[in-house]
């Protein structure tokens, strides 16, 4: 797997194209469609403290993690893999790239649908634990969200390196 981790300038410059792609892959990946409108992705890509890490396979974007980073906290806002690339450990590889890039202790937070057992399994394997449950947090359908957290320290790193190459990507 290769990955594309654009800096803030690149995210802003490519916001329209990346936002359209993120919306399309979310619409195809989520059973109830994309959780955000395309305009929301575009605005998010341009917002301060918002970052995206993309997987690249066969010269195409295949998944992404989006997140908000402030001080020693990262809130994960999306983890999505294109349906044609699912079940090939791409989300796991993206997580490994993101975790291995941390140079200081950091707290990760995310929300996940209570029914999304595959995602919960992945997050638990990464070391996340459930902090709380938000009742009726999601709509279409109405569902609880589990709030999960991970305190990442250098000692969490077990020496396993993901085989990934950083690449430049353009539309």
General description of the model:
This protein has 171 residues and is α+β, with helices and mostly antiparallel strands. 30% of the residues lie in helices and 36% in strands. It contains 5 helices and 8 strands. The protein has helices spanning 8-13, 15-29, 38-46, 90-100, 117-126, and strands spanning 2-4, 50-57, 60-70, 73-81, 106-113, 129-138, 143-152, 165-166. The chain has an 8-stranded mixed beta sheet with strand order 6-7-5-4-3-2-1-8, sandwiched between helices. α4 (90-100) links the parallel β4 and β5. α2 (15-29) packs across α3 (38-46). The two termini are 19 Å apart. The model has no long low-confidence stretch (mean pLDDT 89).
Sheet with most strands: strand arrangement: 6-7-5-4-3-2-1-8
Share of residues in strands: 35-45%
In sequence order, what are the helices and strands, one letter per element?
Answer: EHHHEEEHEHEEE
Mean pLDDT across all amino acids? 89
Count of discrete alpha- or pi-helical segments spanning 4 or more residues: 5
- The outline comes out as globular
Radius of gyration computed on alpha carbons: 15 Å
Name the poorly predicted regions.
Answer: none
User: How far is it from the N-terminal to the C-terminal residue, by CA?
Assistant: 19 Å
- How would you characterize the largest beta sheet? 8 strands, mixed
Count the strands? Answer: 8
Give the class from helix and strand content and strand pairing: alpha+beta
Helix content: 25-40%
């Amino acid at each position: 797997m290769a990955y594309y981790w654009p800096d803030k300038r690149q995210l802003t410059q490519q916001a329209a194209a990346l936002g359209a792609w993120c919306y399309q892959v979310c619409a195809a990946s989520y059973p109830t469609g994309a959780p955000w409108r395309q305009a929301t992705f575009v605005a998010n890509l341009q917002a301060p403290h918002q970052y995206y890490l993309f997987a690249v396979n066969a010269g195409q974007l295949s998944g992404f993690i989006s997140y908000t980073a402030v001080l020693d906290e990262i809130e994960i806002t999306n983890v999505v893999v294109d349906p044609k690339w699912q079940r090939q450990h791409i989300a796991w590889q993206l997580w490994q790239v993101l975790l291995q890039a941390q140079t200081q202790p950091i707290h990760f937070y995310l929300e996940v649908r209570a029914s999304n057992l595959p995602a919960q399994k992945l997050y638990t394997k990464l070391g996340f634990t459930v902090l709380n449950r938000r009742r009726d947090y999601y709509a279409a359908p109405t569902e609880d969200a589990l709030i999960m957290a991970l305190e990442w320290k250098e000692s969490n790193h077990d020496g396993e390196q993901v085989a990934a190459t950083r690449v430049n990507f353009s539309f």
